[in-house]
Structures are given as C-alpha cells and as structure tokens.
Amino acid sequence: MQDDWTILERTASGRDVHRRQHKKTDGRDLFLYGFSRHDGARVPGDDLQTVQGSELRRHPLRGDWSIYAAGRQNRTFKPSAAANPLAPSAHGAPLTEIPFETFELAVFSNRFPSLFPEATEPTSSELEMHAARGACEVIVYSPEPDGSLATLSQDRRRLLLEAWVDRYQAMFDAGCAFVLPFENRGDEVGVTLHHPHGQIYGFPIVPSPQQIASDAFERGYDLAADVNIWGDPYRIVEAGGLVSYAPRFARFPYEVWISALEPVSGPWAFNEEQSDGFAHLLGDTVRRYDAFFGRETPCMLSLHAAPYGRDGTFQFTAQFYPLLRAPDRVKYLASVEQATGVFTVDVMPKQAAEALRGAL
Q1: Do 272 and 335 contact (CB within 8 A), yes or no?
Q2: Quick one: which of 2, 187, 246, 289 is 20 to 30 A from 28 by CA?
Q3: Which pLDDT score is estimated for 76?
Q4: How far apart are CA 145 and CA 25, in angstroms?
C-alpha cells in the first residue's frame, strides 16, 4: 500500500498541517503530522506485532463498564533507552513503532489495545457484555525522548491540538460514541514509557461520568457562568478566551481545569485565538505544577468533549488531576474513594488556585 498525504482543512499559525498515513505490515495505521510534508523513506525491517482480544462487561451493581483485555498484561514495561518503541527508527537497528528516521508528531494504533475495530461479540450471556469495539491510539509528541507539555514549543502544542481534532473526527466517523484523549505522566501514575506521549481511546459507549455530565448540560447547567460567579480567587491564568482554574468541586488537591469563557463543545470548535490560548494553557499548567512541587509532577490529563451527536449544550473541559498533595506526598486513592467514589480533598480549591498562581 502506498502512503497517503493529506493537507488538513484546519490550519495552525497560518500554516498548512500535513498528514501522512502509513500502513504497518501488521495492518495497523501510523499517521505522521507536521507543518511540513513528511517525505522520509521507511527504514527497512520487521514491524512490531499487535496483540488483540478484549470485551466490555457491565457491573450489575455499579452500572458502569469495565474492559477486560488480557493481551495487555505483557505490554512493554520501562524499556531501556536503546529499546524505546516511541523513538524514530534507525538503520541497522530493530524497528520501533515509527519506522522513519525523523518526524514531527506521530499517531499509531496501540500494539496492546483495550479497544479495537475488529473486536468480536462475546459468546457468554452471563452478564451484560459487548464487543470492545473501538480504537486505542498512541500519540507521540516529539521525536525527542525527553520533555513534556511544559517544554514543548507553542508550535508543537498547536500541532498536537490539530492532531487531536483530526483523530476526534476519524473516530467519530468510525462509529465511536465517545473519544477521550489523555496523558498519564510520572511513575506514581503507572507510566511505563517515559518518551513524551499520550493516548486516545474511542469508546463504543458513553462512559458513566461523561453521560452524567452530558445530562447535566442538557438540563441547563452552565459551567462558564459558574466559573465567572466564582470569580478571581479560583482563576489561575486566562489566555485566548480560555481560563485555567481550580474548580470549587475539585476531587484532587491542586486539580486544574481549562475551559472556554464562551463555551464550546470540543476543541474542533475553537477559533484561532482559542486554539492558541488552549495550547498555551496546556504548557502553562504543567510548568506551574513542576515549579510548585519542585519536581516533575505526576498527573493525569484528560480532554472531555461532547460525545458523538451531542454538540448542542456540552461544554468542553481539559482536566488535570495531580497525584501529589505535597512535593513528597502522594495523594492515594484508598478504600473510601475506591469503594464509594467519595473523595477526601486535602487542599481547599481556593488555596490551590492561589498557590499555583504564585508558582511562576
């Protein structure tokens, strides 16, 4: 199969965004995104092979879903720098996940997916079960093995945003009901690959938290108005019509959300100013965490956009959950949180906002 080159309809900073689609030998897709067309030749060698097999099961008492994916048990775990699967490939060495010598930003189908397009329906009827049919992709921010959203350039964060938007559209077009771009950062979160990257899951169902949020917006809850009512004590930084803040209902110490002052349902609806503002705030939030805690801060980032077909009232947020309550103290989710979903928060959100405002 020959590679396909596309210029995306959206542009960043007045430049075209190019996408190259490459088919791996095991059938998985690889997409290379850049402000310049990627014309590099494929490095010869054997591609890594994918592992599949999973299903969705609904908990009869909690009402939520879990993915059972036994093939992930033996996934890559903290490889050496020489065996980094997210690095560019080099001639004479085993291929990585990206069989090219250089790239700007790469997205590929996960080798150890929880969800995949060809998932078959379970044969058992003991529980409410579904095929784990969807998508799991890895998005590699940079060819460099070190760095973070804080150290990436603004241009690279803009390119990341364009890639996210493109993957949202592709997964919705493929039939996904909800798409979640996310990043896990730090050993305390369980990161097994330290190369700067995130993931994107496309679900065949709308998970319970997003369904509840969608219902709240449809009933008329206005997050943007609420944030304005809280006022400056909860705000951290404003940029391009978006604002970062410590929500009054935060569940984690130093939790930060980013959302638009004029609500949008997803990043695909950003105008140019909002795109710049969002890209800036992604880096700014991580920089503030690292400055405040005095170390690389373990945290979870997730993008909460409208489920498929629910653009009307949904208000987009990016949510950061740090796993620290002090520089040397991890915020553990222990028995009460796990059993009930009721979190105990050690820091008042207003104080968290004040601390993070003064961190830089």
Answers
A1: no
A2: 187
A3: 59
A4: 25
